[in-house]
Design goal:
alpha/beta, about 20% strand, about 400 residues, Diaminopimelate Epimerase, Chain A, domain 1
């Protein structure tokens, strides 16, 4: 049996089939929560949270509450996907938006779910500056080295929601169908598993087991309402632009879509999902420039989706985009999906459309060049037609 990372070893992967390791995980989670009774914790989710992140933050709040721990769930970006908005509203999930000046003084510890600090940068920077203890990390992505928590549960499963479902199934907190909050948490976790496994297409045995357990407690009507949300007009326009701008090479479909509002950021992964459905495409990458709400900050942001077993999004994106000066990777991912975010810095801002278009052409060419080099394709002299960036 591999030693687990709770003992301070280098191996972060927990063998889900190894029951004794799961029992150790559960005991150590319970022990940390017991030691933190009466405290207030910050649960950090990724900047642009998806259902897996939202549901696991919600689940952690329920678990922490049974140990007398008050929890605030915080994120630094936007929630714009219609299903994510419906999830938060229909299940009444309270989230706090990170802003400059956010008061960290009430918190005695922080928890990271469905991320390891690499997709929640500004929050991590502030937490580490204030020396707030990093207590817990629960995630299913490839191991990152941004944080140094007391407890780390990183498993190769389809969703972080699967891990939290196992906590409930193993008795950390006993779910009861008669309790409204329990039903809401179970429903959220089910949605988290479903979306992160592409409707269970990429699900692993542990994900099916978790879904079977949760099915006893969910509200099917609410789940149907959450999943029946239509795509917004803005998302459809982004998908249309990705189709028009895509470059298809060797099974890869790569599309730059120009400038997007921060509120429309969730359209990027949806466009990548859509491009992946094209015949003879096994990997899709869609990217654009996201402008912050104040218009002063800009980030090159992209999503990657793949159905090819030999393509590792985490490895691919880390190699293509490298690290920042502090050694942190700009990109990363999991088995079938990944993402990247690169601050533009000094060149950010500017309302002049001609100036923005000029910048976009440079960014687009540079990203395409890096990806083409990685997949071993020499770019043709003829450049693809790029529509004017929108904002």
């Amino acid at each position: 049996m591999k030693e687990n990372n709770l003992a301070g070893t280098k191996d972060p992967l927990i063998r889900v089939e190894d029951v004794s390791v799961q029992e150790i995980q559960l005991r150590q989670m319970r022990q940390i929560l017991e030691e933190c009774r009466g405290q207030r914790h910050l649960v950090v989710i990724q900047n642009y949270p998806d259902p897996d992140a939202i549901s696991t933050g919600f689940a952690h709040r329920l678990i922490a509450g049974t140990f007398g721990i008050e929890v605030d769930i915080v994120y630094a970006g936007q929630i714009s996907h219609p299903e994510n908005i419906a999830l938060v509203k229909l299940l009444d999930i309270e989230l706090r938006k990170w802003e400059n000046g956010f008061d960290l003084s009430p918190y005695q510890g922080c928890v990271f779910v469905d991320n390891q600090g690499t997709t929640s940068g500004p929050i991590v920077d502030a937490i580490q500056a204030k020396k707030i203890p990093e207590l817990i990390v629960v995630d299913h992505h490839e191991t990152q080295d941004r944080l140094n928590p007391k407890f780390k549960d990183i498993r190769k499963v389809g969703a972080t929601a699967t891990i939290y479902a196992s906590y409930f199934e193993e008795g950390l907190v006993k779910l009861e169908k008669s309790k409204k909050e329990h039903v809401m948490v179970a429903t959220a976790l089910m949605h988290g598993i479903k979306t992160d496994t592409v409707g269970f297409v990429t699900a692993m045995p542990e994900d099916f087991q978790a879904a079977a357990f949760l099915s006893r407690f969910i509200d099917s009507d609410l789940l149907e309402q959450i999943t029946s949300q239509a795509r917004s007009k803005q998302t459809m326009e982004v998908i249309q632009k990705s189709l028009a701008n895509r470059v298809n090479k060797e099974g890869y479909s790569i599309a730059g879509i120009g400038y997007l509002r921060c509120e429309d950021r969730d359209a990027i992964p949806q466009a990548a999902d859509f491009l992946l459905t094209e015949e003879n495409v096994h990997t899709a990458i869609v990217f654009g420039v996201i402008s912050t709400n104040d218009g002063e900050g800009e980030f090159l942001t992209g999503s990657m989706r793949t159905s090819k077993i030999t393509v590792d999004p985490d490895e691919f994106l880390k190699e293509v985009f490298g690290k920042d000066p502090s050694g942190r990777h700009f990109g990363g991912g999991k088995k079938t999906a990944g993402g990247f975010e690169i601050p533009i810095g000094f060149l950010s801002g500017g309302e002049d459309s001609e100036f923005r278009e000029m910048k976009w052409k440079v960014y687009n060419a540079q990203i395409l060049q890096k990806i083409m080099k990685k997949i071993g394709v020499k770019r043709e002299d003829k450049k693809p037609e790029i529509s004017s960036p929108t904002g």
